[in-house]
Amino acid sequence: MEAERLVGVSRRALAQSRGTPDIIAEAWQAQALAQAIGSRLAADGPQELRGEARGLSEIGGRCGGALDHPAARAGVARAAQLSELVEPRATLTGLGALLGEVGMALVGVACETDEQGLYWQCMEAIDAADESMDRVHGMLRRLDEQDRERQQDLERGRGRDGPYAPHGAVRGPAGSAAGQS
């Protein structure tokens, strides 16, 4: 399944979660998905994202054991359905939203529980979701910077010769010097 679609499935599943076991399961699923998307981007994504993507993958892997859930113990992750990642920006935007929603849901579970072990599992998972979200936002910033640089390069190229250069003018970096001889 395509990554952006898989993120959407996970967001809907989290929104439909009823009770602590479902929320814990979806938090685990979200971290497994973050790990899978990070791994995919580290291997095949844009070069400028690969370092942050490796970090995202490592965080997702570390958190897997923080949540004690049967799905986690069985290793049945929705992320195993990941087949392609077509649009990194859209996928990362959705993943960032999912991780934020997971963090908020886990805060709710932590506030409602009287069980020490569950409380601390939630705290660790909240930290991991937050750290993963930081990586996602870092990758989105890198994509934005890359887009700005491309736009500036295009504008500099247009400004040099531009579409309104005088007819017969020599175009290119040496155009002004060559045309003045």
Short description:
This protein has 181 residues and is mainly alpha-helical. It has helices at residues 3-15, 20-44, 50-63, 70-74, 88-112, 116-160, 175-179. Helix 1 packs antiparallel against helix 2 (20-44), helix 2 runs parallel beside helix 6 and helix 5 packs antiparallel against helix 6.
Describe the model.
- The protein has helices spanning 3-15, 20-44, 50-63, 70-74, 88-112, 116-160, 175-179.
- The protein has 181 residues and is mainly alpha-helical.
- Helix 2 (20-44) runs antiparallel to helix 3 (50-63).
- It is elongated, with a radius of gyration of 23 Å.
- The mean pLDDT is 84.
Question: Keywords for this structure?
Answer:
181 residues, mainly alpha, 7 helices
What's the gyration radius in Å? Answer: 23 Å
Number of helices: 7
* Residue runs with pLDDT of under 50 for 5 or more positions: none
Strand fraction band? under 5%
| Topology as a string of helices (H) and strands (E) | HHHHHHH
Number of strands: 0
What can be said about the biggest beta sheet? none
How far the N terminus sits from the C terminus, by CA atoms, comes to: 62 Å
Structural class, by secondary structure, is: mainly alpha
Q: Kindly state the mean pLDDT as a whole number?
A: 84
Shape: elongated
What percentage of residues falls in helices of 4 or more residues? over 70%
Could you give the topology of this structure?
Blueprint: H1 3-15, H2 20-44, H3 50-63, H4 70-74, H5 88-112, H6 116-160, H7 175-179
Helix pairs in contact: 1-2, 1-5, 2-3, 2-5, 2-6, 3-6, 5-6
